[in-house]
Amino acid sequence: MNVEVTPLPGIGTRHDFVSRTGRRIGVIAHRDGHFDLVVSRQDDPDSCVASVPLTTEESAALANLLGAPNLVAHLRDQVAGVSTRQLPIAPNSPYDGRTLGDTALRTRTAVSVVAVVRAGTVHPSPKPDFALGGGDLLVTVGTVTGLERAADVLDRG
Amino acid sequence: MHDSSISLIELGAVFFGLGVLGRLAWRIGVSPIPLYLLGGLAFGAGGLVPLAGIEGFANLAGEIGVVLLLLLLGLEYSAAELVTGLRRSWVAGVVDIVLNALPGAIVALILGWGAVGAMAMAGVTYISSSGIVAKVLGDLGRLGNRETPVVLSILVFEDLAMAVYLPILTAFLAGATLLRGLTAVGVALVAVTVVLVVALRFGRYVSMVVDSPEPEVFLLRVLGAALLVAGLASRLQVSAAVGAFLLGIAISGSTAENATKLLEPLRDLFAAMFFVVFGLNTDPRSIPPVLGFAIALAVITTATKIATGWFAAARQGISRLGRARAGAALVARGEFSIVIAGLAVTAGAVDRELAALATAYVLLMAILGPVAARVVEPVTRAFQRKPATT
After folding, report:
1. Architecture of domain B59-383 in CATH?
2. Global ipTM
């Protein structure tokens, strides 16, 4: 993939690439440190359908949301025979509002939770007293069967 | 005591009035510059409400406004951006000069203002308002558009052109003969080259002189340096504006960015004063005789700026709609046209009608520019028979 870097004199720098569907997607890094997320129009690729200003924290949150699957893919490439999955805590899950230790995933399924993604922020290496909530994503590592059982445990308790 | 209280009240009323006008302007999506000019016209001689007692302060504030406008224009682009801009867009830049400077010069010659008047009017119609253009592009969410770098690179080129043009104009305004004029051209080119080389190689030393981690120390130093350089330049018969502009180019890197942040509010304050003073010194009764020429110039130079943007964007392989957007974005003229007219009029070397023509012209263009940038898309789409798909 080819990320094009274009200087915008007096404003900052634009970084963009063309997606598989033909949209130009990019980021304008302003001199003052804030970012604009830009997406090109379908009928006129020269112009933008959206240009959304993001604060530094918002950009970090967005980067984490998009980067989480990347983290998993990275893990999968590194260790042969180990699988990773992202398991969601549904809002009505029995563990919504309880701690990670309560799930006893490690003992019951031999699956490790390496990180929790919540509202775009990654909490790496959560401790057993980490309180889970509906909408959290657990980044887990284990065997294929172990992961399936872990998904089951999180759904039904 | 009594005098100063009256002055404070008058000054307060002027600033408050400008604040109200400025808010109104951004509400309806146009630049506040034309409203400031109108405010000045209304207060001035022959206007609705003659304002006495604060001329001394207003004139000095206006001078500082010009220095700050040009200092920030110099700070806006780094020396490296200026050099790359020159390399990449010189063809479009030359087209821009030819198409947009000529109409102004021709009208000045028709009105019998001579070579110096023609030179000043050429500058007035040539230079786009980088402030209005950048603001409009940001407001309309067009910073990510593919034609935007083209628009910006033209603004960068105009910035460089000003660095050469202003010293030459000042030399001619000071009553130079052709030979001395040519010397001034040579000196201007050498000065700009030296400043660019210094900024590229030794920019951090210049920055070190003004830089400070304490905001108030930094503000005082950079403002002091700007006024010192401007004053010295003025002493040496180069205009104060040129000195401030070259200082702005020489300051680089993070120092330049911090200076811009600190000085922007000050610039807005003093520049507003400058527009008011310019309006004050222009007799509203002198505008109607030149209004026809102003309208003709507005129509012609709107077309020529659109042609410039169209040409420049076409060279970068941008579609028709994008070319039209690039052209319309460049239409706005504003602060620098008034600065040029102000230089010409205060030097006393040109007809006073030039101020009236420049005022009327900028009034039209500062309103027309943002409007053109807004309506260009629907208009162009309407002209394209079938809407483009994919």
Report:
1. Up-down Bundle (1.20)
2. 0.74
